[in-house]
Amino acid sequence: MPKTKLGPAKLPGEEEKSQKSSYAHFPEENGHKGGLKSWCSVEVPVSKFSFEIPGLGQSGENCGAKVATHFDGDKKALKEGRLTCKRPSCPECWRDWSRRRTFQMAVAIELEAYIRDERPFFFLFSVPPTEVSGSWDWNRVNTSLFRRGYRRGRKHRIQGGVNVFHAHRIKKKYQAKFQEMGIGSGERDVGYWIDGVREDVLDLGNWKEYVNFGPHSHGVGFGEPKGHKSELFYCRDCENRTDEIDEAGGECPKCGSCNTVPTFILRVNDKNGSPKRQDLEGVVAYCRYLLSHVGVLQNKDTFNNPTRRWGCVGRERKFKVQGGIKLLEEGIEVRKKKLKEIKKEVAQLVGMEWSEEGGLFYPGEEEDQEYNWRPIYEVQFMKKRTPPYSMRDIEFLEDLEVILSNQGMEGLEIDKIKELMPSTWVVVKLAEGGP
Predict the structure, then answer these.
(1) How far apart are CA 302 and CA 98, in angstroms?
(2) Which residue ranges does the record annotate as region Disordered (predicted)?
(3) 8 Å CB contact between 218 and 121
(4) Residue 193, φ and ψ in degrees, nearest 5
């Protein structure tokens, strides 16, 4: 048998790659769930050039690499699959990322809607253009957009929701041109981003030519908000902040000055003073649209999480307040059954399927996909995770080459290989010849 290298191998460029960059390639393996503040140092300046929109950035280093996924029936061959980086910036992975993130958001929203027996509505946190003219860093994004938004939202009876971060606004002159071309709708800029900016219909050569830096956040939430719009104003003379002014230049209630400017906007999608309640199909469609132009940080060594859950839809939701009595009466089994129903319904709306055994997957994924089968002597084993490993496992991987050379296929411990597969990439590498 020709000698086939089966020892632990390094990926191309792994010598230069630091352990920190592994968050970008395998974020779920590393448990990286940081929000905006975790993406980079809070002192790093940000602008419109700091971000891409999904699918127009970089792929992970190993996206598309072939790996072995399953043994065949007689354990003499491996099924060849493909690695995905799951990045929102990746041209190949962003649509899948969008579907899966929409699924997570919509399930959380629909479960809350069931508990409260109340439909959600859409809202907006925004910083006025006058406030964006100064310097921005992550600390200011957190304090001036998100944290202030949560405070203002609660003050106006928004009890929580899911928010999507957007870093850009389309320039008004291009919005007008899109409308002349029949692109976009009147109520929101649906179509502006997908059919206008992404397709570069005006041949500007770069999508960033269409936009200005404008941090804002769209959300889907719950509560009984007061009014359609709330603005927080700042008096440049006495430094007072107030919401008792109707427009810029209004009289400050503290000092009487008219040198006032807006600093924050909260807007609710309403009708006749009451929020427009949305059904599940509307929520899913809205989330998919919002994720099509979410702000994706352009740092290839950083995996960003541009969606946030807060208040009643927060990650630590314990069902102790709204719906607590309802859940107590129904029992935990009823709640679990309802959650399964929600997941199945949402999965269908994003073009996928969900099962308790297989999780979220595409219809016919196993049946329709064509797999290549490789004999075991044609594969190469490589470490998947960073140390520590047990010495026994390291020695086993290093001994595979010797085992194949001296004992052939009969000497392979197939069960041991299967045991290590969760922590070892089995990388397909065509050998020269065969046994």
Answers:
(1) 18
(2) 1-32
(3) no
(4) -75, -45
Q: Which of these, 190, 226, 193, lies nearest to 208 by C-alpha position?
A: 193
CB 144, CB 132: distance < 8 Å: no
CA atoms of 198 and 177, how far apart (whole Å): 15
Beta strands 66-71 and 51-52, pairing class: unpaired
Q: What are the phi and psi torsion angles at 296 (to 5°)?
A: -110, 120
CB atoms within 10 A of CB 414: 13
Among 100, 106, 98, smallest CA distance to 162 is for 106
The Cα-based distances of 312 to 157, 227, 317, 320, 329 in angstroms read 12, 21, 7, 10, 20
**Average pLDDT of adjacent 10-residue blocks, the chain of 435 residues:** 32 35 27 34 60 83 71 60 80 91 94 91 85 66 81 90 91 90 66 86 91 91 82 75 73 81 82 87 94 77 68 62 49 78 95 90 64 55 44 51 54 56 44 35
- Amino acid making up residue 273: G
Could you tell me the two tokens for 48? Answer: 């419109």
Cβ 39 vs Cβ 302: under 8 Å: yes
Q: Letter for the amino acid at 11?
A: L
Q: Which residues pair with 242 in a beta bridge?
A: 233
